[in-house]
Each structure stands twice: as structure tokens, then as C-alpha cells.
Amino acid sequence: MSSSDLDTLIDLMARLPGLGPRSARRAVLHLIRKRSQLLTPLSDAMQEVAITARECLNCGNVGTSDICEICADDKRATGEICVVEDVADLWAMERAGVFKGRYHVLGGTLSALDNIGPEDLSIPRLIDRLTSENITEVILALNATVDGQTTAHYIADQIEDRVTLSSLAQGVPIGGELDYLDEGTISAALNARKPL
Asked: pTM of the predicted model, to two decimals?
């Protein structure tokens, strides 16, 4: 490896989320020290993923086939679709292991500042899926941001007469202490209170 090869690798690593130049240098040094255990297998895996990874034609998840494992699983055809902003949100929901239906990845949120309109997201494909998959409930699992809530309202307006709509509860997280929560979270929790 030449010095310029190392600099290129460090520069590329520094572009990853959560890594800056300093963290990238440490990661590259660690990979080089553990070349046979980490660097070579990582390189091989990245090469394979670069060739095989693709977006699911149905929901937008990332996998190695045109239709992801979740969409291909007949047991998940429950009539429920959980709408998320991006694949990372889908993966987070799957890690929780509580949702047994199917997903729909929007590919972002509506944003007037970034010129992202409904045509830039996969909202039309979501609407098509309502009929083709006999969907009875759409769960809007969008982030509690201005853009996320704007997107949720837009989708609700488009499909409100066709299916049951629901959204994730918002408020105090499990293990959360009121003293550490922001005013918006406390307000959402109070407004979404339920009887004991």
C-alpha cells in the first residue's frame, strides 16, 4: 500500500456517517493491523455487496434480490403496512421484532426547503400497494420532525378513506426521566396520555 492509497482509504472512510478524519485514521490503522481477520474479509464482503445489493421493487428495502425477504414472506401478508422514511428505520423496526406485517420505504420526507415533493418519494407506489395487497391498515412510523409530520399529514390526506390509519405513539421513552426530556416530547406525551 502506498501512502496515497492509505490517504485515499482514510478519506473514503471519513465520508461514512459517524466517522471523521481522526476516527477514519484509527479505523484504517486497526484494519491494517488485523489485515487477515478484518481487512481482507471486509474487502471481500464489500465487493460482494457492491455487486449483489439492490432495492426491493415492492417496498424499497435493501437486499440481494428484486423482492426482499419480508415482501416474499407470505406470513407477513397481514394487511398491515408500516410506512417509514428510510431503510435504517425499517431495520430498526425489525430489530424490535414486534411488527409482523410488511413495510414501505418512502425514501425521505417532504421538504419545501430541499425541494422534495410527493413525486420525489415513493408515495404513488404506496397507494398502488393498498389495492394490490389488500391493505386494511397503514401505520405511519415517520420521525417526529416537521418534515416527518408534514409527510404523515400528506399521506393521510391521500389515503384516509381507503384504509385505517394509525401512527406510532410519541412521548416519554421507557426508562426516560422527565427532567431530561425536551418540551416537545413532554407535550406529545401529555397529549397522548391514556387511562390506567
From this structure: 0.83
Instruction: Give the mean model confidence (pLDDT) for residues 41-63.
Output: 96
The answer for residues whose C-beta is within 8 angstroms of residue 194's C-beta and 6 or more apart is: none
Beta strands in 15-105 (DSSP E): 54-55, 62-63, 80-84, 102-105
Mean per-residue pLDDT over the chain, rounded: 92
**Which grid cell sits at 65?**
434480490
Contact 89, 109 (CB under 8 A): no
H-helix or E-strand containing 138?
Answer: strand 137-140
Residue 152's nearest CA partner among 166, 164, 162, 136 is 166
Section 135-145 average pLDDT: 93
Cell (9 digits) for 145: 420532525
CA 134, 136, 139, 140 torsion-angle sign = positive
Under 8 Å between Cβ of 81 and 135: yes
How is residue 57 written as a grid cell?
Answer: 421493487
Per the structure block, which three cell numbers stand in for 89? Answer: 428505520
